[in-house]
């Protein structure tokens, strides 16, 4: 924490802030001064935030800072509860919140300046989907996105050029070349002027050339305007076509609407919306307020240790056990009236829950229906915009569906007949195969018997004779009975036709009546559907208006609740500051010296005096050291010389002792030789 404050103070004392802070003065800043300091740092990063916080509301200040910190991608430490504490600390100017933000901002000021500059052009403006249905708004939004992409590309090129970097020598060569070219152009212009001055009426010719150039530029601008007006006319025609189609649809819907059904639907819609406004939404708001109250209460309490959590769990278990005992006692009493009331209460609660569930389902269904209607409008507009495409009307679509159903029925009938014929063909094939097998077996048995009797081929010859005779007799009979059979067949067919007509006559009458009833019911269904569509359109309009009103009321309620919370926070902060000021004043004016010493002013005054005394002592010590530096250096030099001198003497003395010992040894050796 000390290193962090030291870094902040050093950065603030440098350019461009030049605050001249020290650790004590920076630590003694009030919350309002800290917020102003943070606003100044943010203003250095983004000039739009260089404002005086006294000229704006605290809520606006907090929103402005939070918005810029979100753009700069500052991530406060901690969880979601810590985030709410961070917002509250930013509003109140808490030091544990402001100091890390300042440290983070001052560490990367240049990078954040670049990010804030890019955010002015790259933070996309979200446009609601219902506004994008308008062609003008959609065109502006598309143009806005294209400009944003163009800015991204230009910025990338700019950064690449900065990274690549042209050398100063190349830039100087380019500048010199451009200057030479400029001089050449100036000389050429002078020569042309001199040459033109010799021509008669040169001023008039120059004026005509200038007018020609202006007219060409005007022609280009007019051509561009003509192209723009053509595109606008095309878009306007498309909008007119869509509006005409919508008008026809609305006229078709409203044509056969009845006021009774509309009033009934409106009453149902009003009842549903009144239930939402009077029961459902207030209940949800009350539950939200209760949960927020408990969350604020939990957040305001100090941090809990494991022992506190254990004690709370033990207390919760005791309360649950006591509740269970009370429930058992009540069940042991078992009063019939209470049981009836409990049954009624249970039924009422079940009905209320079902009512809430159905209301939620209805609301979800309405939202889904509105989204589907929007999708239908988008698809229809896309279909209108496609070239060469036609959208079927309701009657044409009904005729198409009817024709498709009849074709489908005919196809299913024919497919069923084909399946029956295929099945019958399979059965006949199987029967034929079985009969052929039996015939072959009988023929084999007959041939075996003929071979056994010695008359092989008899049966075949007899069969041939019988077949020929049968064919002859049949031909004779056919020749004789052809006319009789034909006359009988005609009589039978006439009788069958008459019988069928007689049997089908009541069925045909009934079918005609049913067809007439079907046409009447179809017409009635179409009329009811038109009434339903018109009523649904009117109710949808009223529902949208009521939804907007409810949405506005909810937003107003949320705004008032936010203001209430903010005022509570400000009030709590002011109360704490007032309490601190009262305690400080009480301690400062107290006659008791011990109480007076506890005052913050006295403590800071004592600390300042101690620091000033310490500074004086250090300055005096520095002065003494500076004054005695020269003599001390000389004395140190003399001591070093003296040390070298004594070292030389010691070496000379040691050498002298060594030489004396060597001479004595030599003398003793000479005496010994003389004695010998």
Automatic annotation (TrEMBL):
Main location: cytoplasm
Lineage start: Eukaryota, Metazoa, Chordata, Craniata, Vertebrata
Name of the protein described by the UniProt record: Intraflagellar transport protein 81 homolog
Organism: Pteruthius melanotis
Function in brief: Component of the intraflagellar transport (IFT) complex B: together with IFT74, forms a tubulin-binding module that specifically mediates transport of tubulin within the cilium. Binds tubulin via its CH (calponin-homology)-like region. Required for ciliogenesis. Required for proper regulation of SHH signaling. Plays an important role during spermatogenesis by modulating the assembly and elongation of the sperm flagella.
Family: Belongs to the IFT81 family.
Domain IFT81 calponin homology stretches: 3-126
Localization terms from the record: Cytoplasm, Cytoskeleton, Cilium basal body
Keywords, comma-separated and alphabetical: Acetylation, Cell projection, Cilium, Cilium biogenesis/degradation, Coiled coil, Cytoplasm, Cytoskeleton, Differentiation, Phosphoprotein, Spermatogenesis
Coiled coil: 137-253, 309-389, 483-563
InterPro entries from the UniProt entry: IFT81, IFT81_CH, IFT81_N_sf
Gene Ontology CC: ciliary basal body; intraciliary transport particle B
């Amino acid at each position: 924490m000390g290193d962090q404050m030291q870094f902040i103070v050093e950065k603030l004392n440098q350019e461009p802030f030049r605050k001249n802070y020290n650790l004590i003065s920076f630590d003694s800043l009030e919350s309002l001064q800290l917020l102003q300091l943070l606003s100044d740092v943010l203003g250095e990063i983004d000039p739009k935030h260089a404002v005086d916080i006294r000229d704006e509301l605290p809520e606006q200040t907090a929103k402005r800072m939070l918005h810029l910190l979100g753009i700069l991608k500052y991530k406060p430490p901690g969880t979601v509860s810590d985030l709410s504490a961070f917002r509250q600390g930013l509003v109140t100017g808490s030091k544990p919140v402001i100091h890390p933000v300042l440290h983070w901002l001052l560490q990367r000021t240049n990078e954040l300046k670049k990010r804030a500059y890019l955010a002015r052009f790259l933070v996309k403006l979200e446009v609601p989907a219902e506004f994008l249905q308008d062609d003008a708004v959609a065109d502006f939004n598309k143009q806005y996105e294209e400009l944003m992409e163009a800015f991204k590309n230009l910025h990338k090129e700019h950064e690449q050029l900065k990274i690549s970097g042209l050398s100063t020598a190349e830039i100087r060569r380019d500048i010199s070349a451009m200057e030479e070219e400029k001089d050449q152009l100036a000389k050429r212009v002078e020569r042309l002027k001199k040459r033109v001055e010799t021509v008669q009426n040169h001023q008039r010719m120059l004026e005509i050339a200038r007018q020609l150039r202006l007219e060409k530029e005007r022609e280009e601008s007019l051509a561009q305007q003509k192209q723009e007006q053509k595109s606008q006319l095309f878009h306007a025609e498309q909008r007119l076509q869509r509006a005409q189609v919508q008008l026809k649809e609305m006229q078709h819907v409203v044509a056969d609407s009845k006021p009774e059904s509309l009033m009934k639907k409106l009453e149902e819609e009003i009842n549903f919306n009144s239930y939402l406004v009077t029961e459902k939404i207030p209940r949800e708001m009350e539950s939200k307020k209760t949960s927020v109250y408990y969350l604020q209460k939990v957040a305001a309490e100090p941090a809990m240790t494991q022992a506190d959590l254990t004690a709370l769990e033990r207390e919760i278990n005791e309360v649950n056990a006591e509740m269970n005992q009370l429930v058992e006692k009540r069940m042991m009493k078992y009063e019939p009236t209470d049981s009836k009331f409990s049954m009624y209460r249970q039924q009422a609660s079940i009905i209320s829950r079902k009512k809430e569930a159905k209301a939620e389902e209805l609301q979800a269904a309405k939202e889904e229906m509105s989204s589907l209607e929007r999708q239908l409008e988008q698809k229809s507009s896309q279909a209108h915009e496609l070239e060469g495409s036609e959208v079927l009307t309701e009657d044409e679509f009904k005729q198409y569906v009817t024709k498709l159903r009849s074709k489908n029925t005919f196809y299913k009938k024919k497919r069923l007949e084909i399946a029956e014929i295929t099945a019958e063909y399979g059965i006949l094939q199987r029967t034929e195969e079985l009969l052929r097998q039996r015939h072959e077996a009988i023929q084999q048995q007959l041939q075996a018997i003929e071979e056994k009797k010695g008359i092989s081929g008899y049966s075949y010859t007899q069969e041939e004779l019988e077949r020929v005779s049968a064919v002859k007799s049949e031909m004779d009979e056919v020749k004789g009975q052809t006319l009789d059979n034909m006359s009988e067949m005609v009589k039978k067919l006439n009788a069958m036709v008459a019988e069928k007509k007689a049997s089908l006559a009541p069925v045909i009458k009934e079918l005609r009546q049913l067809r007439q009833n079907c046409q009447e019911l179809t017409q009635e269904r179409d009329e009811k559907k038109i009434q339903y569509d018109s009523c649904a359109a009117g109710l949808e309009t009223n529902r949208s208006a009521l939804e907007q009103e409810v949405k506005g009321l909810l937003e107003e309620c949320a705004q008032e609740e936010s203001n209430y919370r903010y005022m509570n926070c400000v009030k709590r902060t002011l109360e704490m500051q007032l309490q601190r000021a009262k305690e400080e004043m009480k301690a400062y004016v107290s006659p008791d010296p011990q109480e007076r010493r506890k005052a913050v002013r006295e403590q800071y005054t004592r600390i300042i005096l101690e620091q000033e005394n310490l500074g004086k002592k250090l300055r005096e010590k520095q002065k003494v050291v500076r004054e005695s530096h020269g003599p001390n250096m000389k004395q140190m030099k003399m001591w070093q010389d003296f040390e070298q001198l004594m070292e030389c003497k010691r070496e000379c003395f040691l050498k002298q002792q060594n030489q004396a010992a060597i001479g004595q040894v030599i003398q003793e050796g000479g005496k010994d030789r003389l004695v010998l």
